[in-house]
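Structure (tokenized):
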């Protein structure tokens, strides 16, 4: 018996040490090869907005003149004599659906550390570190288990998707931090319902909305949790056969919580009114800028994206979007997620169960229902689902802590899956899960691009083809969907110094193009294609759908 106790304690210590090592690896992955991957379309716009530039400022470059590729990078550094007001005006005029807080932080960061890719991406990487202690605190609040908290921290630290966000110069790492902070403060306010806690909750949620409009999904989920938890608690209290002596006080407290949450929500909305007015006054521009998310796609496409999105929390290896092997590889990890949620629902208190279920399914449903009813692909965008993800880490952590925590659950009555309840089995499963995460992060860390870089996914390959030429000239225009502007700037980071650009207006002038250079065309618009056809130029595909080589011998 003494030997068994010693062995159990020794295994527990080994597990904790391994989890700490895994967390350390996750931290390291966040900063490894920060400038390796393509600085993609959306990151370009982060730098553009934070720097105080507007799209109109780039107009002089699209005037049918040949310029060096590196010239475009001046629009990624702080605009001379500009202020934070210019950053704000850039967003209000051209991107009102993007809240301004992160762009202000990014501008301040650029003023201190420069505008290089490494500097810009180091900001979200550092911010992402705050999520690690926060998810530990949240897990402890929900489950009162240090093992559970450490496992949740490990899963978030090593998540391939979270590391992708941490290495992306966008606001999503900050949104994750605020989701966790608001959840901690909400639970604290529900347990210790005083206006100090509610006041902190109000401030954090207002910061969340000023960081990203989609933080509202988390607030809606929290509202559903508070109301449903109150109704169920009230029902259980009324129907309990064993009344507590202080039931009237508890009843009074329960009844006041929805009211306090409503007041807190009203205060948050009041604080956000300035930006609500910005959105209302520029509603058409915001609508036009998000048209791509309303493009109808097939149900099969949505299902595939859901599988890829949720499994990417633990594994991010694939053999192609249409390969069955990709989905078979990820299926076990989806089963683990599902079993984690099932275990929480089976063994946790109704309050914890409701928190997990509402956190995962309410934001997901808000995105899915419009896609299914009216068409669109909002729910297919993985970064839009980040409100769902912390609760998934918590659920899977509870699953493993339950079966690794030495509670001898295999002998508990009602455990329908006792065949899989042994600690040895779950140690193997945990090892597989962590190995998959580490392998995914390792491959991603040394890659030039990754799936989240759309529409800039092929830019690294495009740049390599152009750089292989001795005298390259790259032609492009704004494109039919205006995405070329961001992607040409993205390419400028990858192109050699000898590469020249000819950025064309909507009435392209091709007279200055001669046979002295090797001519490439990047994503030409219909008007540019017509102009080249009129000159009898022959286009040969170099990178499918992205880059063509021009033969002007005719």
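Design, position by position:
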């Amino acid at each position: 018996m003494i030997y068994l106790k010693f062995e159990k304690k020794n295994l527990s210590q080994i597990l904790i040490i391994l989890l700490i090592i895994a967390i350390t690896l996750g931290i390291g992955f966040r900063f490894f090869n920060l400038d390796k991957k393509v600085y993609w379309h959306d990151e370009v716009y982060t730098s553009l907005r934070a720097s105080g530039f507007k799209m109109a400022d780039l107009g002089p470059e699209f005037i049918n003149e040949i310029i060096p590729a590196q010239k475009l990078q001046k629009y990624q550094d702080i605009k001379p004599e500009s202020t934070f007001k210019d950053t704000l005006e850039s967003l209000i005029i051209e991107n009102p659906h993007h809240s301004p807080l992160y762009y202000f932080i990014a501008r301040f960061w650029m003023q201190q550390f420069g505008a290089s890719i490494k500097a810009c991406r180091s900001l979200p990487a550092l911010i992402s570190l705050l999520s690690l202690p926060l998810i530990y605190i949240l897990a402890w609040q929900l489950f009162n288990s240090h093992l559970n908290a450490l496992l949740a921290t490990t899963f978030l630290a090593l998540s391939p998707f979270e590391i992708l966000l941490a290495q992306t110069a966008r606001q999503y790492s900050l949104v994750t931090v605020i989701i966790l902070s608001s959840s901690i403060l909400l639970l604290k306010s529900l347990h210790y319902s005083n206006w100090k806690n509610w006041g902190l909750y109000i401030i954090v949620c207002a910061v969340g909305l000023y960081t990203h409009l989609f933080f509202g999904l988390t607030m809606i989920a929290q509202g559903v949790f508070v109301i449903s938890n109150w109704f169920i608690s009230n029902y259980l209290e009324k129907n309990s056969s064993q009344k507590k002596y202080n039931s009237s006080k508890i009843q009074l407290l329960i009844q006041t919580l929805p009211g306090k949450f409503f007041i807190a929500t009203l205060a948050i909305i009041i604080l956000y009114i300035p930006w609500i007015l910005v959105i209302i006054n520029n509603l058409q521009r915001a609508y036009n800028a998000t048209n791509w998310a309303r493009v109808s796609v097939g149900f099969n496409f949505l299902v595939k994206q859901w599988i890829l999105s949720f499994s990417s929390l633990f594994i991010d290896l694939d053999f192609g979007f249409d390969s069955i092997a990709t989905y078979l590889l990820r299926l076990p990890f989806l089963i683990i997620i599902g079993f984690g949620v099932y275990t929480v629902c089976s063994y946790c208190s109704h309050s914890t169960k409701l928190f997990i279920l509402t956190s995962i399914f309410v934001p997901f449903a808000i995105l899915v229902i419009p896609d299914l009813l009216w068409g669109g692909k909002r729910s297919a965008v993985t970064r839009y689902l980040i409100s769902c993800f912390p609760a998934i880490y918590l659920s899977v952590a509870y699953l493993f802590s339950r079966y690794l925590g030495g509670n001898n659950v295999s002998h508990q009555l009602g455990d329908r899956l006792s065949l899989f309840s042994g600690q040895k089995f779950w140690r193997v499963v945990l090892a597989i899960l962590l190995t998959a995460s580490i392998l995914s992060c390792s491959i991603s860390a040394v890659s030039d691009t990754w799936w989240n870089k759309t529409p800039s996914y092929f830019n690294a390959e495009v740049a390599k083809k152009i750089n292989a030429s001795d005298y390259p000239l790259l032609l492009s225009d704004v494109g039919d969907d205006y995405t070329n502007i961001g992607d040409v700037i993205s390419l400028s980071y990858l192109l050699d110094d000898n590469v020249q650009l000819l950025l064309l207006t909507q009435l392209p002038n091709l007279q200055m193009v001669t046979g002295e250079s090797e001519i490439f065309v990047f994503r030409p618009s219909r008007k540019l294609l017509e102009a080249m056809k009129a000159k009898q130029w022959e286009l040969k595909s170099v990178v499918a759908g992205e880059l063509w080589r021009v033969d002007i011998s005719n």
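Reviewer-requested clarification: The longest strand covers residues 538-543. Strands lie at 65-68, 472-476, 500-503, 518-522, 538-543, 547-551.
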